[in-house]
Amino acid sequence: MTSRASILPAEARAAFRAGLVEPTSGWSRGYAQANVLSISREHAFDLMLFAQRNPKPCPILGILEPGHTTGPLLAGGDIRTDVPKYTVYRNGEKVDEPTDITGYWQDDLVTFLIGCSFTFEAALQDGGIRIAHIDQGVNVPMYRTNRACDPAGSMSGPMVVSMRPVPASQVADAVRITSRYPAVHGAPVHVGNPGELGIADLGRPDFGDAVEIPAGHIPVFWACGVTPQAAVMQSRPPLAIGHAPGHMLITDARDSDYLVP
């Protein structure tokens, strides 16, 4: 059987289009993954300004113009079908988690493709740092924090973070490795005590799945591209469609495209 890591992006998107549903961490090694959020033209400028004011959790990799369903990051693909699972919000409330959003699509929707920390996981593995959620076969844990993002127009909300436990002896390596990928969240925003981020229980993530934290490991937190969805929940636009957390768009861009020497 072909390993998930060796599947090319177009093949991965075709598999999801055909109905396969699973988190994408570890898929298509060497290729960048992206968070997705589609929002009406009316609110798109506010979201773009929100992202510019909060580049750590919201680094924009690309934007599809109103009604467009494909672009350079998914050549020949369709943003309505090529993500394994989506989340649909109406007035900030989650109303559906479909695998195909064709029925929700509107010609005024602008789609933002936002950097994802899955992009630097291969570099962490190459540096000898194991990825707990991959090893444990679960989705990455993600948490709302007590850090408010800078608001923009109608958009406001908290920063969301993803967490990976790292051996204490390798934390400095994890910081060094990920700092070279600023377009996909870069270095961690916090290391250690989750209470300082307002996280009461690592065993109860707001998105994704809890992971076991081995002895001698420290929780390390990176800004997360689910942050715009948290802003949607707080700001309550009439319609917004995102990826289901952890179920990303696998793009044709290479991880190395976002590596800073």
From TrEMBL:
Which top-rank group of organisms is this from?
Bacteria
What Gene3D superfamilies does the annotation carry?
PSTPO5379-like, PSTPO5379-like domain
InterPro entries registered for this protein in UniProt: D-Glu_cyclase, Putative_hydro-lyase, UPF0317
**Alphabetical list of SUPFAM superfamilies matching this protein:** PSTPO5379-like
This protein's record includes keyword Lyase: yes
Lyase recorded as keyword: yes
Enumerate the UniProt keywords alphabetically. Answer: Lyase
Q: What is its EC number?
A: 4.2.1.-
The EC category is lyase
Q: Which family does the similarity line name?
A: Belongs to the D-glutamate cyclase family.
Q: What is this protein called?
A: Putative hydro-lyase GCM10011577_25470
